[in-house]
Amino acid sequence: MADLAQPVGVLKQIGLIVGLRWRMLHNNLRRKQNRLDLVGLVIVGVLAGGVVLGLCFALFEGARDFVSTGRIAWLSLFFWAIFVWWQLSPVVLAGFGMSFDFRALLRFPLSFGAFYTIGLSYGLADFTGVAAVCWLAAVVIGGVSAKLSLLPAMLVAALLLWFSI
User: Fold this and answer.
1) Averaged pLDDT, 111-128
2) What contacts 140, CB < 8 A, 6 or more positions away?
3) If you placed Cys at 114, which of 8, 13, 53, 108 could pair as Cys (CB 3.0 to 4.6 Å)?
4) In the prediction, which pLDDT does 18 show?
């Protein structure tokens, strides 16, 4: 009988896990306290998004100003600030939120590819990572908007920072 089951693809496995997590969230929202927690999470998310976008604008303008006034070396301050954020904020924020326990996925018969893809997507969707990538993009776009010839150097610096973390 076991040979009758067809192997399930990676996308199907991920879809099943997403559906399961959605169903768990839906069932959790039956209690009033959990609904209020979700409302608070949405409000904090909107406020955090506003801070990230505001800093994107400030980094864009700062990078454009540094390049247009000939202080290109000062761009390293922005890269260092983003690096420090990327290193310290997960440590500081870890105590305030719930993190997903990947060991909970071990009870499901997932392939290694599906498990790796889910882990990678959780890591890429992390607030700290998304904010840092937005800020890197703002610095690069700000510097390049003032002097287009800096594009290769700015991309190399941003990619080295991305991959070093």
Assistant:
1) 80
2) 63, 151, 154, 155, 158
3) 13
4) 82
CB of 158 closer than 8 Å to CB of 135: no
What are the residue ranges spanned by the domains of the chain? 50-164
Copy the structure tokens of residue 158. Answer: 């941003």
Does 129 score more than 90 pLDDT? no
How many whole angstroms separate alpha carbon 160 and alpha carbon 156? 6
Using the CB atoms, write b or e for 80-90: b if 16+ within 10 Å: eebbeebeebe
pLDDT tens per residue across span 44-67: 999 999 999 999 999 999 999 999
